[in-house]
Amino acid sequence: MDHLKKLSPLLKGFIEKGPAGCALSVNHKGETRFEDYVGFSDLKTEKAIKADTIYRIYSMTKVVTCVAALTLYERGYFLLNDPLEKYLPEFENPKVYRTNDKGELYITPASKSIRVKDLFMMTSGITYDGDANETEREVREVMASLRNDKTINVRELSKALAAIPLAFDPGSQWRYGLSHDVLAALIEVLSGMTFGEFLQKEIFEPLSMQDTFFTIPDEKKHRLARLYHRKEDGSLHEITEMDFPYQQGVSFESGGAGLLSTLSDYSRFAHMLANDGELDGVRILGRRTIELMSTNHLTAEQLTCYDWDYLAGYGYGLGVRVMMNPQAGGSNSSLGEFGWSGLAGTWVLIDPKEKLSAVYMQQMLPNFEAYHQPRLRNVIYGAL
User: Domains of the chain, with CATH numbers?
Assistant: First the structure.
């Protein structure tokens, strides 16, 4: 894969017009074929991005959460089509916000229960906070409380979300939201451990992921890359107000966006999935479960809501994008290539057919993901 050398000038081009620094690792058939670190983790001190730099991976946490839940699925703890209230009783008899012909808001019972599968698929009716509809506005109030109370945990968040009428009937639409945070609460109930304890025991320790956690230890804080906001004039300004979840004493362990990790750690996790669920003799998931995870689960109707332009050609599986139409996406990747990305521009690609994985790290808002990620993908596959 000598053509992977083309990635180095691409990364340098990214930091000329984007993040302060970035890093990329590509693993093929069990060997690291490319690894590079470009730019700075701290512009003020000109501290270089290095192998031990720690990043906020935000929504790349979702892939870890879904894998963790699937380990319990493989042990028979739940079925994907089970009603969620069987395990989280607060979701019994869900309600839905609706509007009539006059635009007036009213509430009725949902047409069906939320299934466990709906949490994986983002078809639950649970949203993120926002202002697009009444559900989002009520979720915004709940999340504001979370930021003001360090003692709230995922179980309490689940109960608070269950009290809010859904944005739509479960299973009728795809909508990005807090479904994977509720999935973390399900893991706690089924395992009898906190979410963080379960991840540590079942994923991080077996895979020797020593720098992946929700709360950053004091002795590792100096390794955390700065997070920057890029203004329209190209200047980068540090953001610090988003770091409260990672501090000591905060109980909330977000299944949707809470983890910190390194390029090396997350690359080990990604290549475990690319290698049919096993790495260095340690099995985390079965091959057939990964095949199920990385198959599109959305119906034609649900796919109309899955309309992010830069994900053209992809469907959505159990918590991951899934390539189902390379022609539509202008992609040279494999059918079934899967992964996800994070708010600050981090990205993971996993391809069991090619035994290929790639992890990209940066820390910038807006993240330029629609520019960076397809280009990384196409160069990587062009080297095969």
Answer: 2-61+195-382 (3.40.710.10), 71-191 (no CATH)
